[in-house]
Amino acid sequence: MADERVQSINRSVLLARAKEPFLDWLRSLPDPTEITLEEINRECTAYLVPEYDLDSDVPLIVRDVFQTVFQIELESWWLDESDWPDTSDFVLFNSWFAVEVHSVTRDLTPGPIEFDDV
Fold it and tell me: What's the rounded Cα separation, in Å, for the pair 51 and 104?
């Protein structure tokens, strides 16, 4: 049996993987990068979101958090918001990112979770 200290936490995980339009935006910036889509997505940010029971809840969760995720993803590459697209545009977000949401989150690390100020 698995280690009894492994705990499930009351969060799900959202991953936003960049698509070609995001890469096109990066390359259009005043200081463009030569990074590839594969390199961008190799180390993507995992976001903890509310847990869910039904697959039908996933679109609602994504809709609730997409603007924050969109802003964080853009900010991680470019700080000048005047060069950003409209981060309130859900259709645009979906054209720039492929979203995965996973319902089971397990904590494999002993000790308390520590939070960093962002």
Answer: 8
